Amino acid sequence: MATGNVIGIFGIVICVLACGIGSAIGLFKTGSAAAGILGENPKKFGKVLVLVLLPATQGIYGFIIAIIASGAVGDIASVAEGWMLFGKVMPMALSGLITGILQGKAAVNCIYAVGKQDSLGGKLIIYPAMIEFYAILGLIISIML
């Protein structure tokens, strides 16, 4: 029978893993796209670097929630409280997984566009950054809960 502590820790683990997986998939996509562009023109490194790194933030957010939530694990006295902690970290877990992947996909297309026209670099960052907003909402909700 799972105790409240185990349930709470399991939620934290899922949050870190989901956010990390979302970031890793997004970074795989952006890194692969950047490698192709930089293979043709290494001078575009600075223009694509920010686009490549954007999906990494979800992993950081998941880690922040894990640190915050781990402080509450010792105070769990019942299974119900364990499930409450589990539920508190899920907004970040789900938003981190989904936005990390989708932000990577959006950034890949922006990287390809920068490969065709340098001047778009600063303008195109807005599109994957809009997806970041939803990751930040998941972070804020998990912190508020």
Question: What this model shows, in words?
Answer:
The model has no long low-confidence stretch (mean pLDDT 92). Helix 2 (45-53) runs antiparallel to helix 4 and helix 3 runs antiparallel to helix 4. It is built from six helices and no strands. The two termini are 26 Å apart. It is mostly helical and 145 residues long. The longest helix has 38 residues, at 79-116. Helices cover 86% and strands 0% of the residues.
Percent of residues in helical segments?
Answer: over 70%
Mean pLDDT: 92
In terms of DSSP E residues, the strand content is under 5%
Q: Characterize the largest beta sheet: strand count, sense, and whether it forms a barrel.
A: none
Q: How do the SSEs run, as a string of H and E?
A: HHHHHH
Number of discrete helical segments: 6
Total E-strand runs: 0
Q: Give Rg in angstroms.
A: 18 Å
Low-confidence stretches: none
Distance between the termini: 26 Å
Structural class: mainly alpha
Gross morphology is elongated
Give a nutshell description of this structure.
With 145 residues, the chain is mostly helical. It has helices at 4-40, 45-53, 56-73, 79-116, 121-124, 126-144.
